[in-house]
Amino acid sequence: MQTLVFKIQESNPNPPEMRRLGEIIKEGGLVAFPTETVYGLGGDALNPESSRKIYAAKGRPSDNPLIVHIADINDLKVLTDEFPESGRKLAERFWPGPLTMIVKKSAAVPTETTGGLDTVAIRFPSHRVAGELIKAAGGFIAAPSANLSGKPSPTLAKYVLEDMDGRVDAIIDGGDIPIGLESTIVDLTGPKPVILRPGYITKEMLSEVLGEVETDPTILDGTSSERPKAPGMRYRHYAPKGELTIIEGNRDEVIARINEELRNASLNGLKTGVIATSENADVYRADSIKIIGSRDREEQIAASLYRILREFDDENVEAIYSESFSSEGFGCAIMNRLLKAAGHKKINLWEDA
Ligand code: TXA
Ligand code: MG
User: What is the pLDDT of residue 98?
Assistant: First the structure.
């Protein structure tokens, strides 16, 4: 398959080509596109054949459900017969934006799209190019992140092209992605709202609207015996090819320990890498040092994380060490993804002390 690439920026989100891109999806084809969180791999959410194609293009197990993206709040009623009051409140506050809600699905949503579940994940993205594509495609786009299964979600079009060239009909290059981590997922089908995946919309923000909100215990705890309720959170994910270890503790001890680990890895002939905050830019000795952002600028850290994991892959770095970050607020999403990328391999120097 020949993959067409179009550059479309948010400043001019509806150029004449958008019509054709919408037609591709309506006819059962796949188009990768920018959202405010990460790039998505879109197909017609109401067409089971399109969902099958999405799973094939990603190499993703077909029991892992897709998120349905809308661009008009009135389209909700097509996807669900029972949108709860809590969902209405969240929609009013956070849509369009990086929040996905799980509700009971209607008969119109094919089980191919929901991985066999009787619930559906719905998101109304705020990225204007995504909005125009959804409208041009008839209103409902199923879209997982536009990476091959197991790789970090793409935050740059070049990584979409790397993973999806020849596998999709078209890619929209919308430039840089503002947030860089996938949407918050909240399950509204139980007695209390539960966060299944943390994101830019934090627990505190959701609680302000809904009162008590629970969190899936597996989000930061790799030893939990429970199974994550978002099927996708079960899979090895976001992972670089090299082995990543997180070091947590006070600043001086972390720096000393990372340098010691780097020295050992180097002596063992491994190519080494570090993920460092800008405050610690000059203190490490490694083959590849990546500055992820300032320690107290979470949005910088989030926006850089997946790009850095991909760059280590490009450079064939084999042993990677990362500083640890706060898991408060948006930090919960950062640490959730970092821990998953590390397969929960973490050295906690606080505990050793
Ligand atoms: O920010 C995002 O959400 C991006 C952009 C493209 O919108 N999309 C995204 O999709 O991250 P994906 O497929 O990579 O992740 C979707 C997650 C998976 O963990 C999946 O298991 C979960 O959502 N999910 C989808 N439908 C669900 C459902 N009905 N019940 C529970 N979890 C669900
Ligand atoms: Mg994904």
Answer: 98
For 120, the token pair is 């559906």
Same domain, 61 and 153: yes
Average pLDDT, the chain: 95
Residue nearest atom 21 of ligand 1, based on CA coordinates: 232
Residue minimizing CA distance to atom 18 of ligand 1: 232
195 part of a folded domain = no
Residue environment code for 208-217, b if the CB has 16+ CB neighbours within 10 A, otherwise e = eebeebeebe
Residue 89: domain span: 4-178
Query: Which residues does ligand 1 sit against, CB inside 6 Å?
Result: 35, 37-38, 40, 64-67, 100, 102, 114, 117, 119-121, 123, 143-145, 182-183, 185, 196, 229-233
Determine, yes or no, domain membership for 218: no
CATH number for position 317: 3.40.50.11030
What is the average pLDDT across 47-59?
97
What's the number of domains the chain is made of? 2
Is pTM beyond 0.90 here?
A: yes
Q: Determine the residue of 185, 237, 238 to mutate for testing ligand 1's pocket, defined as the one with the most ligand atoms within 8 A of the Cβ atom.
A: 185
Domain of residue 75, CATH code: 3.90.870.10
> Do 32 and 135 belong to one domain?
yes
What confidence tens digit (pLDDT) does each residue in 183-240 have? 999 999 999 999 999 999 999 999 999 999 999 988 888 777 677 777 776 655 677 8
What confidence score (pLDDT) does residue 27 get? 98
10 Cα to the center of ligand 1, angstroms:
23
Asked, as a colleague might, if the bond just before 96 is cis with ω within 30 of 0, I would say yes
Strands (E) across 146-293 are located at 170-173, 184-187, 194-197, 214-215, 243-248, 272-277, 288-293
Q: Which ligand 1 atom is at minimum distance from the Cα of 185? A: 23
Summarize the confidence of residues 115-140 as an average pLDDT.
98
Residue of 79, 164, 182, 330 to test ligand 1 pocket, by largest number of atoms within 8 Å of CB? 182
**CA pair distance 130, 136, nearest whole angstrom:** 10
The average pLDDT across 239-246 equals: 92
